[in-house]
Amino acid sequence: MANFSAPGAGEFGTGGRNGFRGPAFYNVDASLVKRFRITERQAFSFRAEAYNVFNHPNFGTNGLDTNINDISTGKFGQFSSTLGAQNGSSARTMQIALRYDF
Prior knowledge:
mainly beta, 3-stranded antiparallel β-sheet, 0% helix, 25% strand
């Protein structure tokens, strides 16, 4: 008998509640800001920002194959995509900016 099988019509399965949970989500964002005064009313602001600093992949349940018919193909329970907060990408993203205040 297979480890996972669909119960018959009108029967309850043996799987417990919350049997399939997604993995933990790790995300570290950081920013550095420095303001340089030129005069009393003028200044430059330098900003450096990094998203997903440690470049950790985050997998979500929307990319998880939960189709029980895929057991025979070996795809059941495998992740096919990662979660991303910015533009659908979960890779490390960095940006810098220079602003003139007057």
